[in-house]
Design goal:
Blueprint (H helix, E strand, L loop, with lengths): L2 H12 L5 H13 L20 H10 L8 H12 L19 H7 L14 H18 L7 H11 L1 H7 L6 H13 L16 H10 L21 H10 L9 H4 L16 E5 L8 E9 L2 E4 L8 E4 L5 E5 L3 H6 L5
Length: about 325
Protein backbone atom coordinates (compact mmCIF):
# COMPACT_ATOMS: atom_id res chain seq x y z
CA UNK A 1 0.00 0.00 0.00
CA UNK A 2 1.37 3.42 -0.92
CA UNK A 3 1.75 6.25 1.57
CA UNK A 4 -1.03 8.14 -0.20
CA UNK A 5 -3.41 5.17 -0.01
CA UNK A 6 -2.56 4.67 3.66
CA UNK A 7 -3.41 8.30 4.28
CA UNK A 8 -6.77 7.84 2.54
CA UNK A 9 -7.59 4.74 4.58
CA UNK A 10 -6.63 6.41 7.85
CA UNK A 11 -8.50 9.64 7.15
CA UNK A 12 -11.60 7.79 5.94
CA UNK A 13 -11.69 5.89 9.21
CA UNK A 14 -12.12 9.01 11.31
CA UNK A 15 -15.23 10.34 9.60
CA UNK A 16 -16.11 13.77 8.30
CA UNK A 17 -15.82 16.86 10.44
CA UNK A 18 -13.25 15.65 13.00
CA UNK A 19 -9.52 15.89 12.72
CA UNK A 20 -7.43 12.74 12.83
CA UNK A 21 -5.83 13.65 16.14
CA UNK A 22 -9.12 14.62 17.79
CA UNK A 23 -10.59 11.23 17.04
CA UNK A 24 -7.52 9.59 18.55
CA UNK A 25 -7.86 11.73 21.67
CA UNK A 26 -11.56 10.91 22.00
CA UNK A 27 -10.92 7.25 21.27
CA UNK A 28 -8.20 6.88 23.87
CA UNK A 29 -10.32 8.30 26.66
CA UNK A 30 -13.65 6.76 25.65
CA UNK A 31 -12.13 3.30 25.45
CA UNK A 32 -10.58 3.81 28.87
CA UNK A 33 -14.05 3.57 30.36
CA UNK A 34 -14.49 0.08 28.92
CA UNK A 35 -11.37 -1.53 30.40
CA UNK A 36 -12.66 -2.58 33.79
CA UNK A 37 -13.10 -6.25 32.87
CA UNK A 38 -10.47 -8.89 32.29
CA UNK A 39 -9.47 -12.42 33.11
CA UNK A 40 -8.90 -13.53 36.65
CA UNK A 41 -5.69 -13.86 38.64
CA UNK A 42 -3.49 -16.88 39.09
CA UNK A 43 0.22 -17.67 39.04
CA UNK A 44 2.46 -15.15 37.32
CA UNK A 45 3.37 -16.17 33.79
CA UNK A 46 5.83 -14.46 31.49
CA UNK A 47 4.67 -12.21 28.66
CA UNK A 48 5.12 -13.57 25.15
CA UNK A 49 8.76 -13.37 24.15
CA UNK A 50 9.69 -11.06 27.03
CA UNK A 51 12.43 -13.48 28.04
CA UNK A 52 14.61 -15.02 25.27
CA UNK A 53 13.34 -18.47 24.40
CA UNK A 54 16.56 -20.11 25.59
CA UNK A 55 15.82 -18.92 29.15
CA UNK A 56 12.00 -18.88 29.22
CA UNK A 57 11.54 -22.31 30.83
CA UNK A 58 14.32 -21.70 33.37
CA UNK A 59 12.92 -18.35 34.48
CA UNK A 60 9.35 -19.64 34.66
CA UNK A 61 10.41 -22.65 36.74
CA UNK A 62 12.92 -21.07 39.10
CA UNK A 63 10.89 -17.90 39.48
CA UNK A 64 8.46 -19.92 41.56
CA UNK A 65 11.11 -21.20 43.97
CA UNK A 66 9.81 -19.22 46.96
CA UNK A 67 7.10 -16.71 47.84
CA UNK A 68 9.46 -13.71 47.73
CA UNK A 69 9.98 -14.00 43.95
CA UNK A 70 7.98 -14.74 40.84
CA UNK A 71 9.02 -15.39 37.21
CA UNK A 72 8.45 -11.77 36.11
CA UNK A 73 10.45 -10.40 39.03
CA UNK A 74 13.32 -12.81 38.32
CA UNK A 75 13.20 -11.82 34.63
CA UNK A 76 13.32 -8.13 35.54
CA UNK A 77 16.30 -8.77 37.78
CA UNK A 78 18.22 -10.60 35.03
CA UNK A 79 17.37 -7.89 32.51
CA UNK A 80 18.53 -5.18 34.90
CA UNK A 81 21.72 -7.04 35.74
CA UNK A 82 22.85 -8.09 32.26
CA UNK A 83 20.20 -7.63 29.59
CA UNK A 84 20.04 -11.46 29.45
CA UNK A 85 23.65 -11.59 28.31
CA UNK A 86 25.29 -14.77 29.68
CA UNK A 87 28.72 -13.36 28.86
CA UNK A 88 28.29 -10.02 30.64
CA UNK A 89 31.13 -8.85 32.86
CA UNK A 90 31.10 -5.59 34.81
CA UNK A 91 34.08 -3.40 35.80
CA UNK A 92 33.47 -4.66 39.35
CA UNK A 93 34.09 -8.24 38.12
CA UNK A 94 30.42 -9.28 38.33
CA UNK A 95 29.98 -12.17 35.92
CA UNK A 96 27.36 -13.81 33.77
CA UNK A 97 23.65 -13.36 33.18
CA UNK A 98 22.97 -12.83 36.91
CA UNK A 99 26.13 -10.78 37.57
CA UNK A 100 27.54 -12.75 40.49
CA UNK A 101 30.70 -11.47 42.18
CA UNK A 102 33.18 -14.40 42.26
CA UNK A 103 33.12 -14.63 46.06
CA UNK A 104 29.31 -14.72 46.13
CA UNK A 105 29.25 -17.32 43.38
CA UNK A 106 31.71 -19.50 45.27
CA UNK A 107 29.34 -19.56 48.24
CA UNK A 108 25.92 -19.45 46.60
CA UNK A 109 26.30 -20.80 43.07
CA UNK A 110 24.48 -24.08 42.47
CA UNK A 111 24.62 -26.81 39.83
CA UNK A 112 21.24 -25.94 38.34
CA UNK A 113 21.32 -28.39 35.46
CA UNK A 114 22.85 -31.28 37.41
CA UNK A 115 25.79 -31.77 35.05
CA UNK A 116 28.34 -31.92 37.85
CA UNK A 117 29.73 -28.39 37.72
CA UNK A 118 28.76 -24.86 38.80
CA UNK A 119 29.52 -22.49 35.93
CA UNK A 120 28.73 -18.79 36.41
CA UNK A 121 28.85 -18.34 32.60
CA UNK A 122 26.24 -21.06 32.02
CA UNK A 123 22.70 -19.68 32.30
CA UNK A 124 21.50 -23.18 33.22
CA UNK A 125 23.45 -22.76 36.46
CA UNK A 126 23.36 -18.98 36.89
CA UNK A 127 19.59 -18.48 36.61
CA UNK A 128 18.76 -21.18 39.18
CA UNK A 129 21.52 -19.77 41.38
CA UNK A 130 20.03 -16.26 41.18
CA UNK A 131 16.62 -17.59 42.25
CA UNK A 132 18.16 -19.71 45.00
CA UNK A 133 20.19 -16.77 46.28
CA UNK A 134 17.11 -14.53 46.23
CA UNK A 135 15.20 -17.04 48.32
CA UNK A 136 18.13 -17.50 50.69
CA UNK A 137 18.31 -13.74 51.21
CA UNK A 138 14.55 -13.63 51.75
CA UNK A 139 14.94 -16.14 54.56
CA UNK A 140 17.68 -14.04 56.15
CA UNK A 141 15.50 -10.91 56.27
CA UNK A 142 12.10 -12.55 56.82
CA UNK A 143 11.65 -10.91 60.23
CA UNK A 144 12.46 -7.39 59.02
CA UNK A 145 9.47 -5.03 58.82
CA UNK A 146 8.09 -4.14 55.42
CA UNK A 147 7.52 -5.95 52.15
CA UNK A 148 9.40 -9.30 51.99
CA UNK A 149 10.18 -8.99 48.28
CA UNK A 150 11.49 -5.46 48.60
CA UNK A 151 13.60 -6.50 51.58
CA UNK A 152 14.97 -9.43 49.59
CA UNK A 153 15.95 -7.15 46.69
CA UNK A 154 17.53 -4.69 49.10
CA UNK A 155 19.54 -7.52 50.62
CA UNK A 156 20.68 -8.57 47.13
CA UNK A 157 21.98 -5.05 46.53
CA UNK A 158 23.19 -3.93 49.97
CA UNK A 159 23.47 -7.12 52.01
CA UNK A 160 21.13 -8.74 54.49
CA UNK A 161 22.82 -7.03 57.44
CA UNK A 162 21.84 -3.59 56.15
CA UNK A 163 18.19 -4.63 55.82
CA UNK A 164 18.17 -6.05 59.35
CA UNK A 165 20.00 -3.03 60.74
CA UNK A 166 17.56 -0.50 59.27
CA UNK A 167 14.44 -2.60 59.68
CA UNK A 168 13.68 -2.78 55.94
CA UNK A 169 15.07 -1.21 52.79
CA UNK A 170 18.11 0.80 53.97
CA UNK A 171 18.41 4.54 53.28
CA UNK A 172 20.89 4.10 50.47
CA UNK A 173 19.87 5.80 47.22
CA UNK A 174 21.40 3.09 45.05
CA UNK A 175 19.56 0.36 46.94
CA UNK A 176 16.26 2.22 46.97
CA UNK A 177 16.53 2.80 43.21
CA UNK A 178 17.41 -0.86 42.64
CA UNK A 179 14.35 -2.05 44.56
CA UNK A 180 12.03 0.37 42.78
CA UNK A 181 13.47 -0.47 39.37
CA UNK A 182 13.03 -4.24 39.70
CA UNK A 183 9.56 -4.09 41.25
CA UNK A 184 8.41 -1.65 38.56
CA UNK A 185 10.01 -3.50 35.66
CA UNK A 186 8.38 -6.81 36.56
CA UNK A 187 5.10 -5.61 35.03
CA UNK A 188 6.73 -5.55 31.60
CA UNK A 189 7.78 -9.21 31.89
CA UNK A 190 4.47 -10.56 33.18
CA UNK A 191 1.56 -11.55 30.98
CA UNK A 192 -1.25 -9.12 31.91
CA UNK A 193 -4.11 -10.66 33.89
CA UNK A 194 -6.41 -7.65 33.39
CA UNK A 195 -6.85 -5.15 30.61
CA UNK A 196 -4.17 -2.49 30.69
CA UNK A 197 -5.13 1.16 31.28
CA UNK A 198 -4.32 3.49 28.38
CA UNK A 199 -1.57 6.06 28.61
CA UNK A 200 -2.67 9.65 29.19
CA UNK A 201 0.15 10.83 26.95
CA UNK A 202 -0.82 8.61 24.01
CA UNK A 203 -2.78 11.06 21.89
CA UNK A 204 -0.14 13.80 22.18
CA UNK A 205 2.63 11.35 21.25
CA UNK A 206 0.64 10.42 18.13
CA UNK A 207 0.19 14.09 17.31
CA UNK A 208 3.95 14.57 17.43
CA UNK A 209 4.54 11.59 15.13
CA UNK A 210 1.82 12.77 12.74
CA UNK A 211 3.60 16.09 12.30
CA UNK A 212 6.66 14.18 11.08
CA UNK A 213 4.84 12.32 8.29
CA UNK A 214 6.80 12.58 5.04
CA UNK A 215 10.15 13.16 6.78
CA UNK A 216 12.94 11.07 5.20
CA UNK A 217 14.34 8.17 7.25
CA UNK A 218 17.83 8.41 8.74
CA UNK A 219 19.50 5.46 10.44
CA UNK A 220 20.43 6.60 13.95
CA UNK A 221 18.34 9.73 13.49
CA UNK A 222 17.06 11.53 16.58
CA UNK A 223 15.35 14.41 14.79
CA UNK A 224 18.05 16.96 15.68
CA UNK A 225 18.73 20.02 13.55
CA UNK A 226 22.12 18.72 12.43
CA UNK A 227 20.35 15.59 11.15
CA UNK A 228 17.80 17.60 9.22
CA UNK A 229 15.05 16.63 11.65
CA UNK A 230 15.20 13.03 10.44
CA UNK A 231 14.59 9.86 12.47
CA UNK A 232 14.95 6.12 12.48
CA UNK A 233 12.17 3.98 13.96
CA UNK A 234 13.11 4.09 17.64
CA UNK A 235 14.36 7.66 17.35
CA UNK A 236 10.84 8.68 16.29
CA UNK A 237 9.06 6.81 19.09
CA UNK A 238 11.53 8.13 21.64
CA UNK A 239 11.02 11.71 20.47
CA UNK A 240 7.24 11.33 20.35
CA UNK A 241 7.03 10.25 23.99
CA UNK A 242 9.75 12.66 25.06
CA UNK A 243 7.49 15.46 23.76
CA UNK A 244 5.03 14.56 26.53
CA UNK A 245 7.63 14.12 29.28
CA UNK A 246 8.23 10.36 29.05
CA UNK A 247 11.83 9.35 28.37
CA UNK A 248 12.30 6.04 26.58
CA UNK A 249 15.55 4.18 25.89
CA UNK A 250 17.10 4.70 22.48
CA UNK A 251 16.70 1.23 21.01
CA UNK A 252 13.51 -0.65 20.16
CA UNK A 253 14.15 -3.83 22.12
CA UNK A 254 14.57 -1.84 25.34
CA UNK A 255 11.50 0.28 24.57
CA UNK A 256 9.51 -2.97 24.68
CA UNK A 257 9.97 -3.01 28.46
CA UNK A 258 8.50 0.47 29.06
CA UNK A 259 5.20 -0.97 30.28
CA UNK A 260 2.80 -3.93 30.13
CA UNK A 261 1.82 -5.68 26.91
CA UNK A 262 -1.75 -5.55 25.59
CA UNK A 263 -2.92 -8.30 23.25
CA UNK A 264 -3.39 -7.51 19.56
CA UNK A 265 -7.17 -7.19 19.97
CA UNK A 266 -6.65 -4.76 22.87
CA UNK A 267 -4.42 -2.27 21.03
CA UNK A 268 -5.18 1.40 21.59
CA UNK A 269 -3.80 4.50 19.86
CA UNK A 270 -0.43 5.38 21.35
CA UNK A 271 0.69 1.81 22.02
CA UNK A 272 4.14 0.99 20.72
CA UNK A 273 4.07 -1.92 18.28
CA UNK A 274 7.14 -4.08 17.66
CA UNK A 275 8.44 -6.34 14.91
CA UNK A 276 11.07 -9.06 14.91
CA UNK A 277 12.48 -11.91 12.85
CA UNK A 278 12.50 -14.00 16.05
CA UNK A 279 9.05 -14.03 17.63
CA UNK A 280 10.34 -15.80 20.74
CA UNK A 281 12.82 -13.15 21.86
CA UNK A 282 12.17 -9.50 22.66
CA UNK A 283 15.93 -8.85 22.59
CA UNK A 284 15.79 -9.54 18.83
CA UNK A 285 13.19 -6.81 18.11
CA UNK A 286 14.35 -4.72 15.14
CA UNK A 287 11.49 -2.27 14.46
CA UNK A 288 8.94 -0.17 16.35
CA UNK A 289 6.06 2.14 15.45
CA UNK A 290 3.21 4.02 17.16
CA UNK A 291 -0.23 2.49 16.77
CA UNK A 292 -2.90 4.92 15.55
CA UNK A 293 -5.93 2.63 15.24
CA UNK A 294 -7.60 0.81 12.38
CA UNK A 295 -4.72 -1.63 12.03
CA UNK A 296 -2.19 1.11 11.20
CA UNK A 297 0.87 2.66 12.81
CA UNK A 298 3.06 5.67 12.11
CA UNK A 299 6.66 4.56 11.70
CA UNK A 300 10.01 5.42 10.18
CA UNK A 301 10.40 2.21 8.18
CA UNK A 302 13.76 2.01 6.40
CA UNK A 303 16.46 3.85 4.45
CA UNK A 304 15.06 5.46 1.33
CA UNK A 305 11.55 5.71 2.80
CA UNK A 306 9.73 8.46 4.69
CA UNK A 307 7.80 8.48 7.95
CA UNK A 308 4.40 7.13 6.98
CA UNK A 309 1.40 4.98 7.87
CA UNK A 310 2.05 1.24 7.67
CA UNK A 311 -0.11 -1.78 8.51
CA UNK A 312 0.52 -3.56 11.80
CA UNK A 313 -0.66 -7.04 10.85
CA UNK A 314 2.40 -8.49 9.18
CA UNK A 315 4.11 -11.87 9.74
CA UNK A 316 6.88 -10.25 11.79
CA UNK A 317 4.52 -8.52 14.25
CA UNK A 318 5.95 -9.29 17.68
CA UNK A 319 3.67 -7.52 20.17
CA UNK A 320 2.90 -4.20 21.81
CA UNK A 321 3.70 -2.10 24.87
CA UNK A 322 1.44 0.38 26.59
CA UNK A 323 3.97 2.94 27.78
CA UNK A 324 3.75 3.96 31.44
CA UNK A 325 5.75 6.73 33.07
CA UNK A 326 6.95 4.45 35.88
CA UNK A 327 7.88 1.71 33.42
CA UNK A 328 9.90 4.11 31.27
CA UNK A 329 11.66 5.57 34.33
CA UNK A 330 12.66 2.11 35.52
CA UNK A 331 14.43 1.13 32.31
CA UNK A 332 18.22 1.04 32.47
CA UNK A 333 20.00 3.39 30.09
CA UNK A 334 22.33 0.54 29.13
CA UNK A 335 22.04 -3.20 29.62
Amino acid sequence: MTVRKAWIVAIAAVGTGLSFVMVLVVGVYLVAGNLAGGVGGGAVTLAKGAVPAAYQTLVQKWGNLCDAINPALLAAQLYQESGFNPNAQSPAAAQGIAQFIPGTWATHGIDGDGDGDRDVWDANDAIPSAASYDCELASYVKDAPGDPTQNMLAAYNAGAYAVIKYGGVPPYKETQNYVKTITTLQASFAAPVTRVDPSKQAAAAISYAQEKLGTPYLWGGNGTADQGGRFDCSGLTKAAYESVGVTLPRVANDQYNAGPHPAREELLPGDLVFFSDDLTNSRAIRHVGIYVGGGYMIDAPKPGAVIRFDPVDTPDYFGATRVTEDGAKALPTTV
